[in-house]
Amino acid sequence: MNTDVLLRGQGLTRRWGGLTAVNGVSLALARGEVHAVIGTNGAGKSTLINMLSGEIEPSNGTVELLGQDVTGWTQPRRARAGLGRSYQRNTIYPSFTVAENCRLAAQARTPRPWAWWQRADRCTASNGAARAAAAQAGLEDVLERPAGLLSHGQKRQLEIAMCLATAPQVLLLDEPLAGMGAEETERMLALLAALRASHAILLVEHDMDAVFRIADRITVMVNGEVIASDVPAAIRTNRAVQVAYLGEH
Question: Would residue 119 be called left, alpha or beta, if left means φ above 0 and alpha means ψ between -120 and 50 degrees?
Fold first, then answer.
């Protein structure tokens, strides 16, 4: 079992007034693994990923990144420390090229305010990181294409490329397969498989066929709580999961 844990959430709880959106959830993300979190709408998946990324503070619980307690850290600080995040909706700059989108992401991780005399687009380091990230995500042939003209699948690839440009060790991916056709899904799964060895990946996804193909571990949430967390074969035969999530009786 891989023990190189890069991100750990312990007892994470989030309350909104009298509503408990997430209740006492713990999970660990290890390098070399894809850990999928599944559940119906309202199960607490997005709230969980938002606590891990630093977008919202937990009411209780802790978050550790690379062995350090980052519970009180902001999202930008966590990003600079090695945590990358993608969203359900596209967060690209449609009028900028693929290369420019990736360069902006790279510059956000290592801003250089002292180099005021140098044009940002002439920065060798950020341009190099941008091109390497685009190539890793399979977009090397469309570097100069405006992001708004990409296919839906390529836009999702670009979001991951923008994450990779910040040199993360942990990737939190929120529904990266949403709206994809079969061919685009295959490309994304191949990309995730390629990224697995050097990253810890948390995947929130509704495509169950894809989840069971790519995930090394699956955590199932219902009403803000974890009802099961195990390898895919065990989750598939788990009676509580069948009843609560897969709709069996």
Answer: beta
